[in-house]
């Protein structure tokens, strides 16, 4: 499945897909082209059986400054009213549908079967937080600056931050950051567990660190990795006993793979394994 975009780039090598936010001239502001193309990129990744891990990174000096207010400002200034004679109810429904479309543009990365890593540098504001919290985990450069900015500009964050961030960061920190819209740096992001590691270096170095982790993931048996992600995801809303039952059922169906045999044989033969995902 081919993929082209004016605001995204998709590179695939060594079983790792890198999705680049590539609107550097606008500091990767998130506009309608991005919301249209993100689900297409996710679909292209999902359709490629060679991909075993994904890195989301960005061109230019910043990951993203968030919503493109220049493009979306007219809608905010008019309260979402259209000029086509629609009633307030119809206009409201159209806005509701549009918000849900954009929500899905973020959610589709959370729903990928393979792990997703966010490599963050520079500003990661507003919608950037929505995107990176949909990843499985995050690495950041030491110059990264984060902000749950929406309340500061009169918006209730509606693309996933208020739902996903509390699963990553303690509730008190979520409340403070969401209510104030304040900027915070990479050191605090690591302290509150928003990011796993801070890389003391440039955007290239944080991407290289993310790529190293992605390659380590991709070197493992693919079905074991995707199964692990499925089981971790299934824990939400389940008790420990229910989670144990789920993983028992999963392994009853999927344990005996060709890669399991390859793992055992390579260990006995003292060689590197060659996994096929079968």
Number of helices: 11
Task: Report helical residue fraction.
Answer: 40-55%
How far apart, in Å, are the first and last alpha carbons? 21 Å
- CATH topology grouping of the largest domain: 2-enoyl-CoA Hydratase, Chain A, domain 1
Q: Low-confidence parts lasting 5 or more residues at pLDDT below 50?
A: none
- The SSE order reads EEHEHHEEHEEHHEHEHHHH
Q: Oligomeric state of the chains? A: single chain
Q: Output the radius of gyration.
A: 20 Å
Shape: globular
Widest beta sheet: strand line-up: 1-2-3-4-6-9
Write the layout of secondary structure elements.
Elements: E1 8-13, E2 16-21, H1 32-47, E3 53-58, H2 69-77, H3 88-110, E4 116-120, E5 123-125, H4 127-133, E6 137-141, E7 145-147, H5 161-164, H6 171-180, E8 184-185, H7 186-191, E9 197-199, H8 203-218, H9 222-234, H10 240-254, H11 258-268
Parallel strand pairs: 2-3, 3-4, 4-6, 5-7, 6-9
Antiparallel strand pairs: 1-2, 7-8
